[in-house]
Amino acid sequence: MSSQIRIFGAQQNNLKNLDLTINTQEITVLTGVSGSGKSSLAFDTLYAEGQRKYVETFSPYARQFLDRMDKPQVERIEGILPAIAIDQTNPVRTSRSSVGTMTELNDHIKLLYAHSAHLFCRQCAAPVRQDTTQSIQQQLAELSQKHHDPRLVLTFPILVPANFSDDEVKAFLEQQGYTRIHREEETTRQINDKKTKKTKLEVMKRLYVVQDRFRFSKAEPERVVEALEHALNHGQGFVYVYALLENSEEVVWPFSQQLHCAQCDISYQKPHASTFSFNSPAGACDHCRGFGRSMGIDYGLVIPDESLSLAEGAIRPWQTPSFKVQQDDLMKYAKKTGIRTDTAWRDLNTAEKQWVIEGDPEWTGKKSAWDTQWYGAQRFFDWLESKSYRMHVRILLSKFRSYTPCPVCQGSRLKADANLWRLGDGQQADYAEGRYKRFMPVEARWSTNTLEQLPGLAIHDLMQLPIGHLRDYFNSPYFDEHSDKASELVLTEVRHRLRYLCDVGLDYLSLDRQSRTLSGGEVQRINLTTALGTSLVNTLFVLDEPSIGLHPHDMGRIVEVMQRLRDAGNTLVVVEHDPQAMVAADRILEIGPGPGERGGHIVFDGTPDDLRNADTLTGKYLGNLLRVEAPLPMKVSAQTPKLILEGVNHNNLTNVDVAFPLNRLVCVTGVSGSGKSTLIQDVLYPALLKHFGEPTESPGEYTHLLGAEQLASVVMVDQSPIGKTARSNPASYVGAFNAIRNLFAQAPMSLERGYKPGTFSFNSGDGRCPTCKGTGFEHIEMQFLSDVYLRCPDCHGKRFRDEVCEVRVEHLGQSASIDDVLEMTVYQALEFFKGLREVQTALQPLIDVGLEYVKLGQPVPTLSGGEAQRLKLAGHLAEASRSRTKGKQLALKGSLFLFDEPTTGLHFDDVARLMQAFRKLLAAGHSLIIIEHNLDLVRAADWLIDLGPGGGEHGGKVIAQGTPDTLKKLPNSYTGQALNEYEDDIVRKAHINHPTQLMAADKAIVSADAYKANSKAQHRSASNYIEILNAREHNLKGINVEIPRDKFTVITGVSGSGKSTLAFDILFQEGQRRYLESLNAYARSIVQPAGQPDVDAIYGIAPTVAIEQRTSRGGYKSTVGTMTEIHHFLRLLYVKLGTQYCPCCQVPVEPQRPDQILAHIMTHHRGQRIGIMAPLIVARKGYYTDLAKWADNKGYTHLRVDNEFIPVNPWPRLDRNQEHTIELPVLDIIIDPANESELREAINTALTHGQGQLSILYELDPEKPLTPDYLEQKHFSVKRACPSCSRSFPEPDPRLFSYNSKHGWCESCFGTGLKLKDFKEELTGEETSWLNRETEEGDSTCPSCHGARINEVARNVLWQKLPIHKLSEYSVENLEDFFLTVTMTEREQQIARDVLHEIRSRLKFMRNVGLNYLSLDRAAPTLSGGEAQRIRLAAQLGSNLQGVCYVLDEPTIGLHPRDNQILLNALSHLEGNGNTLVVVEHDEDTIKRAQHIIDMGPGAGTRGGTVIAQGSYEDILNSPQSLTGEFLRNPMSHPMQPRRDIPKNHPMVEIKKATLHNLQEVDAAIPIGRLTVVTGVSGSGKSTLARDVLLENLRGKVGQREPTINFQGCADIIGWDKLERILEVDQTPIGKTPRSTPATYIGIWDDVRRLFAQTRMAKLQGWNASRFSFNTGDGRCPMCDGQGMRTIEMSFLPDVKVNCELCEGQRFNPETLAVKVRDKNIGDVLSLEVDEVIDFFTAHPKIHRGLKLLQDVGLGYLTLGQPSPTLSGGEAQRIKLVTELLKARLDEGIHKTGRASSAPHTLYVLDEPSVGLSMADVKKLIQVIHRLVDAGNTVVIIEHNLDIMAEADWIVDLGPEGGTEGGQLVASGTPEHLMDLHEHSHTGAALKQFMERNN
User: Fold this and answer.
1) Are 1306 and 1345 in contact (CB under 8 A)?
2) 572 near 28, Cβ under 8 Å?
3) Nearest CA among 577, 595, 592 for reference residue 852
């Protein structure tokens, strides 16, 4: 990985073209005054680029949901890392997200529970265990001894099925030798009726069958064990032992092999991790879906005032006329029942309240009951719910609804059983003290006493403990004693994370706390620990002031966390003002020198120590040359008026009394979580609001509030952001703009033109520029790129119309127009408006808070965070000064201002200015209370209130109240300590001889060193490996793997050995998931990162990108343009820059608004005389006498008919056969600002009459006649309509140019560009059947769009004189030239900047991977596999990231050996950028290029999943166990059997003059009865020749009754008459549902079913073969319908597939599974692998043959029941091959006599059958293919694999290159013949090299 990120020419916001290098694996701090450009550099440039580049690697679909950052304004950035921002925003708004899920602690804790928790029965609270024969034997021994060795009867239970009689079952038992039944009983079970969908109870008999009888002491142990084994087997895991005691009573001792409390006869499910997760359907409570609360009626809202009685209307909803009936009913029934109706609600007893709410206890529920009984409020609301489809009912209900804890799970979020599991030994002091109550599990019938005696805690208990306690809990020795290897890793992870959380000072939170209730600082610190916990490496973390909200005491912890992140191999860029954080950095950059435009330069770059001596603003403060001073602190004496708050008990505050001196600067401080916000925001503020009678939430509990009458009001200034629109600006925010507008409205010119103050507003009114609506710039929205903001072309950024800008205000000899004033800075404006009191007072606050450099008109969103905070303060100051002047009577009382951390985002210098503003407020008589940690502000306060001492339950007390000096002397005040340290250590002069003590940050460094010394994790992260520990996903056998970072690693091994599982399911998904955790939750739900893989831990993982192999190429609508995404960007370009033309008249179409038309006329025709016309009739025939009458009545004298002015009275007779155009002359006027209102009215009239259109005749000359020869006419339209034929068009949108959208596609071909055969008009155009099919003859170009694919509107939008489809016809090469030479105006360049960048970079990659001959409109199905794979790779090469881990799946598939080299070079380019490459591959060349190889094996499926060998190429070669090594050492020798000779006169199938696609009149011959390989480089035309020409043509002829006559794509094919049938075996998937399996596909399953139907038990039940089908019938499991798994839909989480709980994945119901053949039931057979099951069926030749063939093609590792969708392309292809071979019955020897000799002569065409095969499997495949040929068939294979080529009898080699350069026959003949031609043929050369190497 390169050690630097290089930035060139950064110009984002105010950055002044910076060039900068940031070292990786360092902490770089950016500081400087607020507004100097720190965030522009850190977030908008660095983070934006790193996040954008990584997000670009997702699919285009996923990207629309990820907030992809805007492209920064920077020349270029090299070596960027994937970036994660850790700032204060909390993206998650769902209540599913809690502290536990954010930190992933829940995920680990649920693993611990699934692994090590103990279950207690909900009935008897006894531990529930699974019995084994040994444990039962032991228990029997004890019980027998206790009861004096009674006689025991060992029985097992059998259920009698409903369709059987007892006798039948008994007879059946007798056949098996069981003759005694000990007892019988009846049981019921619920069954689902299929037809009615209802559940009904079915009564069944249960027989207890005697297995054995003995006295325990006399029976031999062997006998007991045997009896128990048989009984457990027959009784499905249950055994009942009856003991006959001496007093002749009988007791039963039940035992069970399952999780079953034998005592209470309750069975429990086995726990999975998901059982304990409320985000998984398996664990979440069904009622509240895991939210823990549900929306319900809140009776607090229904009865808001408890002092009212029922008669007075206590029940609020019934006091309206619509529900008066209910109130009357209530009164009527209450009298009957004797409920007191005139007593206040709060005084009614419980029974009475219950009656009102629940209704009559005797409620019958019949329809008539509503009229005769009291239904109660609850039923009333239930009835309303049923009407909630009506809007007004929903609104009504919402007023009375609120969240209540879920009634089912009581807020624990989980299903009932989850909380019966307990973990640990429960010796946790907190529960003993009764501080936290244990959670009583739902449905548990335990006493509280029992609950407290139980060991361990339930998961819900853990969720409610504070993290600090949780840490102690998990550190208890119990866990170490009881942990095994698996739980140890999870435990370590849990302890680490808990420690991290405590390290950053969050020990007071609980895991159940919803993440949306956290403060910004808390969220940021959790994100920091998450970053630590995800243990990503090679990532760029950009932090935004991590010190916010942290007490200096906690700062050292944050510093330590940052250093740990750095030491793990990450890069940190931190924006920070806190001196403690600065001192800990490796490097500091100060950006300045001033804010805003005066900033944007780097004024200092060096170490923290150098900064103390530097002559910069920060340097002076750090070196103590400047201080934040308090100008004369105001003393607090006993006489100072105070505000007193007593007896506060809320959250963690316990009985706190505080006195706040008024008219002073009071600072509330204390460590994080000590209760500051609780005190001020939750108690004081609401209490004061209540005092002033304002609406508010109810305040926290307190006893007295005294002294509030001395205040006029209370104002809370928190950190919420201010106005978001570009129109809001500093001047209007502080109210100065009103005064300025009034001045302008009084200017002489304004009075003359009638301008009002509103004219000078850019928010509304008619003075603002109509084009940009007063924003001053044009916002161009770019769908998937960053939006572009351009200066408005009409007003040039002035925001007003030119006429308005002519008004100038004169003052003190200077004059300025309104736009000049907006451009002034605050300071300049004060100078200009000197002496004007209104403006002066309004602007003064901006100066006070230090914003004198801001322009009056600067849009608020462009201010930095610190500037926005101060602007807000200025607004309050302005408000305060205005209220001062209102009247003297308020002068006695001031307001109380409450500030929450006002120094957020402020530099030392800004804090100093803030202090001055505060002093101004105090001087005006106000009081201030500030929550703050900033030590500069704390030292300057008049009075401090210090809360603490710790956070959470360790806080909540007042430590001290007094001046800063008093605090310094208190040893127990953390704030006092921090103040002392601060003055001694941090802001000290940089004396060289100054002996530095250990200050907070140094201490952190020391502790970090100590941490390194004793931590295992540390040397892990520093090592340069990705470590995967104990991976158990799919078939992996708990393997440990190390993958070197920044190297090229190949994972190889036989097919199905677990390579892809390791690479994709573990490495890729985990790396991507960890990165995604940093993005928003909405995006995550769309991108659906998979769940966590089954692995203990992964360390050192970088963000990952996968380039998967998809064998499908996409349908007809997928083109090179859409695959590379170039088409998306072209669409955007055309929408933004194209000009629309009317398809009929070819004139440009552009709409305008009335005020734009007015502005255009005013600007372009000023001083001219014009006539305004409204078109009434356009080109229609008729007399139009009525029209003339209408015009006459309206007072118009003339109409203009066909360019002649004609009087309306008398009206001439028009020629009715001729088309006329008639216009109405509305006004004749000379353009001048004075006539503006008249002109405006005329335009509106004309638009009304002309239906949105008007035209003007201009430069009218009264001297000349109004004849058409000299009149010039301009058309305007407010609709997007053609000015000549008035056809109107919708607003263009990128979808207009998409042939995948109905907005854009051509209506006749639906975007395919082809006229499709047998295509029904009714289809919507999205039918998959024809979207994905191959080309057929009879597909001609679409007649309406001629192959352009888009509709005529889209075809008539031109840019650079070209429509989009013409541009798409260009090849990549020509397009590159076109975009290099394209000329554009400056505005167009700005808009197209990003788009062109994207297009050019994508074209460049296409060139890099050698595909510059493709044109953009080439359809995906016509690409070769290799071309499609390389296009996908090209997209990835583009992102130019470093430090990423790329995971590739067999990238060489479909590549010729020559192209393979191109690809490997491209990959090494990726690796050269400092990326890790992990490639799953079998290809020898790739393996040789790798630096590290991991060989998986030894077998496939369950016999794989272990690492056989890992290391370099040599290590693999020399490894005796490695199959790959074996083949590399001794490659196959070719040919395996002598080649079949092909003499001169051998019969051939000859193709003449093939010209399809890129074939250039190819003549090729294929010998009959031989093995032919068609090969050539990618794109040379192999598939075209073999599949599209040979196969398609012969399909229509061979074996058809009516053979087709003509040939498609070639002139003729000769010699095909010897063939009798044709088969194609390609790679399309074989089944779409889990019900399709290898066994069903190759057709042996029916025989297996018949076999089971012939067993005695099946006959006894009367079942036939259909009973054993899992697709239909009664035999399959009813719950999952035979699929073996259920898909559970989760609201906004990925759908989850879980094993069916009923059949546990076996697909059948228990009755069916009871039938066994040779001890295996039908479910077992499905789960066996082919290799295991083959011996089982030796006696059944038909089944055995199918299995043997599967083994022969290397599929012995598949299970018979593996769902087809999970098979790879290569596996599916080979299963098809087996099916064909079975049909052909090729393995039965070739009889020369009798019927069998007529096996038809078949032509097989195979498409790359070696895909995804390891070398061992290729060998098996070759043998199968040879068998086909030896049976007298002709086999044609399209293939690149050299082993297969070397076995061929005949090779057809196409080339010489791909695409347009290919399509010729290079050579054809035997492999030897090709090797002789190695100079001309790429194949020959590769083959020659290969054969020489192998033999």
Assistant:
1) yes
2) yes
3) 595
Burial grade of 673 (CB within 10 A; 0-12, 13-18, 19 or more): buried
Rounded to an integer, what distance in angstroms lies between the CA atom of residue 414 and that of residue 408? 9
3-class SS of residue 1524:
helix
Distances (CA, A) of 886 to 718, 995, 1524: 26, 58, 91
Q: Residue 1603 corresponds to which amino acid?
A: P
Torsion angle of the four alpha carbons 1814, 1815, 1818, 1819, in this order, in degrees rounded to the nearest 10: -140
Q: How big is the chain by its Cα radius of gyration, in Å?
A: 42
Neighbours of 1447 (CB within 10 A): 27
State how far the Cα of 995 lies from the Cα of 1010, in Å rounded to an integer.
23
DSSP state of 1335: P
- List the alpha helices (DSSP H) in 928-1023: 935-939, 964-968, 974-981, 1000-1013, 1016-1022
Report the C-alpha gap between 1543 and 1215 in whole angstroms. Answer: 88
Which residues, other chains included, contact 186 with Cβ-Cβ below 8 Å and sequence gap of 6+?
203, 204, 205, 206
- Using CA atoms, how far apart are residues 504 and 498, in angstroms rounded to an integer? 10
- Which one, of 880, 1018, 841, 1884, lies nearest residue 1458 by Cα? 1884
Rounded CA separation 1016/1007 (Å): 16
Q: Is there a contact between 1342 and 1312 (Cβ–Cβ < 8 Å)?
A: yes
| Residue count (the chain) | 1895
* Residue 865: partners with Cβ closer than 8 Å, 6 or more residues away: 34, 39, 904, 905
Look at residues 721, 723, 719, 720 and name the one whose alpha carbon lies nearest to residue 902: 719
Interior CA angle at 335 toward 334 and 336, to 5°? Answer: 90
3-state secondary structure 765-779: CCCECCCCCCCCEEE
Would you give the DSSP letter of residue 892?
G
Q: Is 1665 left (phi over 0), alpha (psi -120 to 50) or beta?
A: alpha
How would you list the strands of the sheet with 1362-1363, edge to edge? Answer: 1139-1140, 1357-1359, 1362-1363
Predicted structure pTM score: 0.75
The label of the residue with tokens 């580049």 reads 53
Report the distance separating Cα 506 and Cα 466, nearest Å.
9
Give me the phi and psi of 576, to 5 degrees please.
-155, 145
Ordered mean pLDDT values, 10 residues apiece, the chain (1895 residues): 84 91 93 90 91 78 69 87 81 75 83 87 87 86 88 88 78 83 81 67 84 89 89 84 86 84 80 85 86 79 80 88 90 90 89 90 84 89 87 84 82 90 72 70 87 87 87 86 75 86 84 78 80 81 86 83 88 91 91 89 92 90 81 82 92 90 93 85 87 71 89 83 76 89 91 89 84 81 69 84 90 89 90 88 86 87 80 84 57 82 85 86 89 89 90 85 91 88 70 40 44 40 78 88 92 85 88 73 57 79 78 67 85 89 86 84 88 88 89 91 89 87 91 88 90 86 73 83 76 80 81 69 42 51 86 91 91 90 88 86 83 84 74 71 86 82 82 88 90 89 87 92 88 89 93 90 95 91 89 84 82 90 80 81 90 85 86 82 71 54 82 86 89 88 90 85 78 84 60 51 89 83 90 92 94 88 92 93 92 85
Residue recorded with tokens 């009622």: 287
The token pair that represents 450 in the structure block: 């029992």
Counts of helices then strands in the chain (DSSP H, E): 73, 68
CA 1077 – CA 1428 distance, rounded (Å): 31
Q: Kindly state the tokens that stand for 679.
A: 């005190």
DSSP state of 281: T
Those residues whose C-beta lies under 8 Å from the C-beta of residue 773, and which sit 6 or more positions away, are none
